[in-house]
Design brief:
By secondary structure, the protein is mainly α. The protein has one domain. 84% of the residues lie in helices and 0% in strands. It is built from 6 helices and no strands. The two termini are 31 Å apart.
Length: 141
């Protein structure tokens, strides 16, 4: 019984690590898509626009990872692989949605994100990230 608990904790830890790696990749992706240093923008300059965009990315990754874990049905190795694969797919699609939205709207979205004043376009982009994540999550089942 105790060994079962430790085994389950180990499985949860590996899923958690995969989720953390995917969230870190999401951070890097948002940093690449936006001008300047994202850490500086959020933690030093307290940029609300950048924070909203990153938060939507992290939340989106969490949605995908949680769904992939739920869909794994106890198959640990396959679950880890699908979690990583769907997580990466979600990140790629979120980046594509950012680029497409930037292409079809006025201004440069990356520059809008790092503006000091709150901008409604950031909410649209954040909603796009969550929508893409929900689509990927539903596709898992």
């Amino acid at each position: 019984m105790v060994s079962d608990v430790f085994g389950e904790v180990g499985i949860a830890a590996t899923y958690g690590l995969v989720g953390l790696v995917l969230m870190a990749l999401g951070f890097v992706l948002v940093d690449i898509l936006t001008p300047g240093n994202l850490r500086e923008q959020i933690w030093v300059q307290r940029n609300r626009n950048a924070s909203i965009l990153l938060a939507s990315n992290v939340l989106g990754v969490g949605i995908i990872v949680a769904t992939a874990i739920a869909a794994s049905q106890g198959n640990w190795a396959e679950g880890l692989l699908s979690t990583a694969a769907y997580g990466i797919l979600g990140l790629v699609l979120m980046a594509v949605s950012f680029v497409v939205l930037d292409a079809v709207t006025p201004g440069k979205l990356g520059e809008i994100v790092v503006e000091e004043a709150p901008h409604p376009a950031v909410y649209v982009n954040a909603a796009s990230h969550i929508a893409v994540s929900a689509i990927v999550a539903v596709a898992i089942f």
